[in-house]
Hints:
Helix content is about 20%, strand content about 25%. It is an alpha/beta fold. The protein has a single domain, classed as Nitrilase/N-carbamoyl-D-aminoacid amidohydrolase, CATH 3.60.110.10. The strands form 2 sheets. Strands 1, 2, 3, 4, 5, 6 and 13 form a 7-stranded mixed β-sheet that branches. A 6-stranded mixed β-sheet has the order 7-8-9-10-11-12, with helices on one face.
Amino acid sequence: MAFRIAVVQPISHPAAAAERNIPDALRAIEHAAHDGADFVCFPETYPGPWRMPATFDPVPAMAVAAATHGLHVVFGTIEPLDRKAATAHNLIVMTYPDGRAPARYRRTHPNGPWIYTGGNDWEFQYVAANDFPVFDTAHGKVGLAMCSEVYMPEVTRALALRGAELIFMPAGTDKSRLWATWRTLIWARAIENLAVVVTTQNLFKHGERGLAMVAAPEEIVFESTAPGLSVVDVDLERLRAMRAGRDQVGASQNFAAKQGVLGPQWQRPELYDAFYPRPLREAAE
């Protein structure tokens, strides 16, 4: 059955004034609900904060808005760990229409802090997490990831193998010369995982080139480089049929993506150690 995703590509307030993003986000949620959305997707680290020490927590307000308007809200923030060390997890959060505890994904890749320090926007010591949770909703199983993890196919594959059909992968800022490869990889993650992948990003001024997309295995359903809120109708039945099916002679006449790539026809888990051999432990002296 079809449902609606509102993809928000906002003109964001800069990191030093990030708390001002919250009322903008709440207005966007109300707008999305008025348009019949079942999910709203905001960018990575939107509405914020972007820096440690964190001066506000957007989760309570976003959770109340999700419950008030009866939809799921996907957004970004950080989870402070140690104020003195300025350490934090980077989070993608999904709040629920029924007010239950929010779902959280803590970024897992890369394993190192450099990506969120020393630039113009983020400033905290990133701590990688290790888990790939998926979350049940009335519309399908959801996976959460973020930003340049699109370059690590293991992340979305881990979510898909755990059953995720709808993967939200919001991103941070202007992609510069990476724009074309980033766009290609969003669709690739949908193709290889037989999933719908959703992304969007922050814009800080008009004229920046955004990258908001909803990619299904067989086509890019929606894309925009402009700021704004767009509502996209999505149906998971087609990808479910491809997941349940098997590739065979003539299948390409009916499907524009390979069937069964998450199942035993294509998967050989007994070879996974050969893909990335684990180092042997040294014998104890």
